[in-house]
Automatic annotation (TrEMBL):
UniProt KW keywords: ATP-binding, Isoprene biosynthesis, Kinase, Nucleotide-binding, Transferase
InterPro entries referenced in this protein's UniProt entry, alphabetically: GHMP_kinase_C_dom (IPR013750), GHMP_kinase_C_sf (IPR036554), GHMP_kinase_N_dom (IPR006204), IspE (IPR004424), Ribosomal_Su5_D2-typ_SF (IPR020568), Ribsml_uS5_D2-typ_fold_subgr (IPR014721)
GO annotation terms (biological process): isopentenyl diphosphate biosynthetic process, methylerythritol 4-phosphate pathway; terpenoid biosynthetic process
Name of the molecule in the record: 4-diphosphocytidyl-2-C-methyl-D-erythritol kinase
Reaction(s) the record says it catalyses: 4-CDP-2-C-methyl-D-erythritol + ATP = 4-CDP-2-C-methyl-D-erythritol 2-phosphate + ADP + H(+)
Amino acid sequence: MLAVVPPPVTVRVPAKVNLHLSVGDVRPDGYHELVTVFQALSLTDEVTVAVTEDPGVEVYGEGEGSVPTGANNLAWKAAQALAAHVGKADGESKVRVVLRKGIPVAGGMAGGSADAAATLVGLASLWKLDISRDELAGIAAKLGSDVPFALYGGTALGTGRGEQLVPVLSRHTFHWVLAFDQRGLSTPRVFGELDKLREEGSPPRIGSHTPVVEALASGDPRQLALLLGNDLQAAAVSLRPGLRRTLRAGVNAGALAGTVSGSGPTCAFLCADAQSAVEVAAELSGAGVCRTVRVAHGPVPGARLVGGDDAPRPSPPRVHA
Ligand SMILES: C[C@](O)(CO)[C@H](O)COP(=O)(O)OP(=O)(O)OC[C@H]1O[C@@H](n2ccc(N)nc2=O)[C@H](O)[C@@H]1O
Ligand SMILES: Nc1ncnc2c1ncn2[C@@H]1O[C@H](COP(=O)(O)OP(=O)(O)OP(=O)(O)O)[C@@H](O)[C@H]1O
C-alpha cells in the first residue's frame, strides 16, 4: 500500500521592532537581563515545510547568500528540537524547509528567530501534533531569546533575556519605515560593545517601560514617538557610525522619531499615518543613507499558517503574574 504523504505547509511570520529596550547587567550565563516592548510588523518571512526523502534547508530572497543552509540554520535547529521533544525518530522526521526571506539578515529584526518560530508552527501542523503554543514557546525559548515573541506576535512586554512575555494592549495600527543597512551586525558583538562602553563611561540608559505601555494604550503615535528608546543604540552606532546619519535622515524626511531596531543596524522610523510613511520612505530612498527602504505596519499576529480556512489564529501569551 502507498503511504499518504501530507501536503506541504506554509507559515507566514513577522519581524519585530523593539519600541523600548532596556539592557541590565550581564548574568552568570552570559545573557543580559532585559526589559523590552516588542511589536510585530507586517514585514515577513514565509517558511514552507514538507515531508521529503531529501532533507535540508533552501533559502531565497533578502540576504539569501548569507544564511547558512546546514545544521546552523535556526529553522533547522527548530525542526530538530521539535522532533526530539515529541520523540520522533530520524526516519520519521525527514523534512525540507524552504525559507522565503523578507526580513533583513542580522538586521536586529529577529529574522532567524522568526524562521525558527514558523518552523515549529509548520511542523506541528504537518506532523498533526496536539501541542499548544505555550508548549511550543518552551521549545522556542531554548532556541533563542527572540523566538517565543515571533510565535505570539502582537505587542508584548519581554523580560528575563527577552523570552518571558506578557501581552501589551495596543489600540492603534502604527506605521513604520524601515531602513536596511548595507551589511548586518552580530548580536553578541553589539551586546559586547555595550559592556565595553559601560566599562569606559556611562552611555545613556533609558528609563522605565511604563510610559511606553501607556502610549500604546492611548494609540497616539506622537506620544509613542517621544518614548522610543534602546540601550543598544549607542553600541550599534559605535560599531556603525553611519547609522547616526541614517537616523537623522529619517526624521528630516518627516518621521516622528527613529530608533535602531534591537541590536541593529536596521533603523525603524515611526510615522504619523500610512500616507506619511509612504512619503518618508520615498524621501529616505533618495537620501543615499541605506541599502533598501520598506514600509510596514504593526502590530500583526505571530507565526500563522497561510491559506486554509482552518488556519488557527495565534492566541496571546498566558499572563504570568
Ligand atoms: C537584541 C534582541 O533582539 C532584543 O530583542 C535580543 O536580545 C537578541 O535575541 P536573539 O538574537 O534571539 O539572541 P540569542 O540567540 O538568545 O543570543 C545571542 C547572543 O546575544 C547576547 N544576548 C542575547 C540576549 C540577551 N538577553 N542578552 C545577551 O547578552 C548573548 O551574547 C547571546 O549569546
Ligand atoms: N533562518 C535564518 N535566517 C537568517 N539568519 C540565520 C538563520 N539561521 C541562522 N542564521 C544566522 O544567524 C545570524 C543572525 O541572523 P538574524 O537574521 O536572526 O539576525 P537578527 O535579526 O539581528 O537577530 P536578532 O534581532 O534576533 O538579534 C545570521 O548572520 C546568520 O548567519
